[in-house]
Amino acid sequence: MKKKLLIPFIVIAAICVFYITNQKTNNSEEFINITLEGKLKPKNKPKNFRQLYSIKRDEYESNMQINPLTGEIPKEEKLKELNTSLGLMAQKKLRKKTSSTYTSRGPSNLGGRTRAFAVDISDTSSNTMLSGGVSSGLFRTIDGGLSWTKVTPLGEIHNVSALTQDPREGFQNIWYYGTGEWSGNSASLGSAYKGQGVWKSIDGGLTWSVIPGTDSDHTVFDSYFDFTNSLEVSPITGELFIATSGRIYRYDGVSLNQELKLEGNSTSSTDLVITPNGNVYASFDGGASLGGVWMSPTGNGVWTQIAQNGTPTDWSAAGRIVLGEAPSADNIIYALYVNGNSGGLEGDLWQYNATTTTWTNYSSKLPDEPGSDSDGNDPFAVQGGYDLVVTVKPDNENFVTIGGTNAYKIADIRTDVSFSRIGGYANNTGYSQYENHHPDIHVLEFDPNNNDVFYSGTDGGVHKTLDINEASIAWLSLNNNYLTYQYYHVTLDPFTGSNIIMGGAQDNGTTIGGTHVGLANNTTMNQLAGGDGVAVGLTRRDNNTALQYFLGFQQGAIYTNYPDGFREITPKDAPTGVDAQFITYYYLDPDNTDYLYYAAKSKLYKTNASAAVTDSTWTDAGTLSNVQNLRTFATTRGTYSSALSYLLIGGDKGGVFKLKDPKNPTSTLLDAVDITPTGATTSSNTIVSDIAIHPTNPDIVLVVYANYGISNIFLTTNATDELPTWTLVERNLNAHSIRSAEITEVGEETVYFIGTARGLYSSTDPTSVNWEMEGESNIGLALISSLAYRPADNKLLIGTHGNGMYETTIEGTLSTNSYASALQLSFYPNPTKKELNLQSNTLDLSQNLNYTISDLTGKVVKKGVLKDQKINVEYLNDGVYLINLSVDGKNQNFKFIKN
């Protein structure tokens, strides 16, 4: 064992070189090609950071949900939120027309946290597979992962954590999946990922219904079926076995039978496997009252404990225990458990032989690679059991694979010296990722039709290797339209007509997308940075020919790429590491992008020169008079005015403050006026989650709160007054957790948008008009974590925490005719069969009007110059298209339907 360095922080060298070239097209759009030579990685990681970050993520989400007056998440309010959302979804589906079309922006090539995966054994080609995202739903592919289709309804809450198929001939059309993530989202903190029971399909995974008796209330932990850890079907009887939080159940197709349970109401992570001859093995946490491993010949009673702390000798489980059966040997199983040795080898591995009833300790073969260690990476690390899995090759009971932070294999556990690394981080000396693979391993599965083919499910989605026997494993990504990314913040390029977008995602860093950065379509993205993504910012420099972006990492760090490559610009006196806010927050003024604001917990740092800012050139603007941590910012839109412009600040004690003329270097937060809405809760942990200011009228402001149990949506129409008056405008969403907000303007119509924990909603006047669901046919009840709006072309970007990003062009509801305000023209008919006719009272359409037509993936299908005020679209396939028009330096985007 190598001695660990006892230092509070580890500095990791991060080298990232980006080359930016610029190309202009003949339709005056700006295309910026980015070549990624390396990936920016977080540094200053605290000791045991992987486990710490998992805990901090839980706290971040929990603090936005708890009722600040009670410290608890109210069950009745979350249930009302769900029922209200389902009702509004049903109402919207009855309408014949929606005001906006929502298009996925991906990422279609990147995947998120995955705990459930299986190859359909009834398909001998192995092209049919199912896979589940923890906050994304269940997906199915019939082409080997070239594309995925979501098979869980948008109107249900499906936090998929377990998956299994009936293995018996004639019954392989039957599938089950379980919901709720026990490990990694802290049940005690009230995580967002509680489940909604166990679900069954009898048509190969196409449609699903809940098993009666398991349909738990996912809003609070009130049922053991809130967290399903494992599912298995007996190959002998076809009975389903369910490992929940502290209980093992047997479902015979009619009734649920409790087979094992902890004493009282105790809970624990659990696991189970079933051998080919029908023997059932189950596990409970090592520290639980019945902790260890249990065995039953059939799973129907007659359970015997075969392992517990002290028996066999040296068995010492401190936490989660996972099991792996050997399909080629009925008598062999493996147990991998958390041993509590944080910073050392964090797991122990044993093999059980049922024929001899003996355990063999193979813990000495767990990986502890030579050379320097990196915390949370090597020796074998499991983040307290967040990622822990053991799987056995179907044709060789001695070939074992294991997963923790990384994935490993050993070809013959009897004779080989140690496990070797096959995925996760590239090596044990740092935190660069293994080529085309992701850390945090939750699923390892062999192909039932070719036992050399191997799959993994990780925090980076689904991957496949064609030959597990190779000395160096090459992985193929199967994340093709597997929409499972969990975004915290998103933004879009302020340049009119640009399709460049950017987002910071949970445990998947920062991504950038758009054909205008040289990508193939508008759903593909590049990952710019690792770690946990946070706030993001985009702007143009050098007469719009260069793209500057701001990105960061959890717990304080912020970087920019301009002008000469990536550099850290974190204010040198700002708290970082464990003292910083976990999801680092900063705000780039979208219309005056020289101004950048950084939240250093309760202190504000600002700069009027974001293009060249360094860690030492920030202005320290101090703290608020009512000191609280800064959670969100918003600035007035349009050209900056020292007399009219202001910055709004939202805190974590419910406070809202207005700072006039924030550009002024002498202005500080002590100058900010408290304009907190009357009726808002102002106790600790009351999170102002977002603030939206009208794009042309600075008097109109929307303020929203995330917590349950309080008033959440406030509107003012006199924000420029010294003390604005506020109106509570929750209306029909008075039970919702509100996470994001935007105010849009189309013609003379204002449309208000709010993103909630259960979907996206709009209202043309929330003082008198109820909120209406948006994107009911594709966004559904996803958590809307972030909204970004570009008034110049009415583009709205929607970031979800689970299903990636969506976008729409706001069209309003006053007119059915699309109207291009920037160019002052209209077009008809829409839908059309052959051509589009354009009209304008202000433009000479005989001049050169360039157009580009793209499909919804961003692929250009036609472009040219307008002739006779018509565009021929007769030969386009039926569908929805986006058209960009440009003349005299002005651009406008809108959509039309070809049928």
Account of the 3D structure:
The protein has 899 residues and is mainly β. Helix content is 4%, strand content 37%. The protein has two helices and 68 strands. The strands form 18 sheets. A four-stranded antiparallel sheet has the order 5-60-59-58, with no helix packed on it. Strands 6-7-8-9 form a four-stranded antiparallel sheet, with no helix packed on it. A four-stranded antiparallel sheet has the order 10-11-12-13, with no helix packed on it. β31 and β32 (461-465) form a beta hairpin. The radius of gyration is 28 Å and the shape is globular. 56% of the residues are buried. The model is unreliable at 1-31, 33-38, 185-192 and 814-821 (pLDDT under 50).
What is this structure, in a nutshell?
With 899 residues, this protein is mainly β. The chain is built from two helices and 68 strands. A hairpin with a 7-residue loop joins strand 19 and strand 20.
Shape, per Cα inertia axes? globular
Radius of gyration: 28 Å
Could you estimate the helical fraction of the residues in percent? under 10%
What structural class do you assign from the helix and strand content? mainly beta
List unreliable stretches of 5+ residues: 1-31, 33-38, 185-192, 814-821
Tell me the fraction of residues in β-strands, as a range. Answer: 35-45%
State the helix count.
2
**Order of strands, widest sheet:** 5-60-59-58
The main pleated sheet reads as: 4 strands, antiparallel
Number of distinct beta strands: 68
* Average residue-wise pLDDT: 88
Q: What is the CA–CA distance across the termini? A: 68 Å
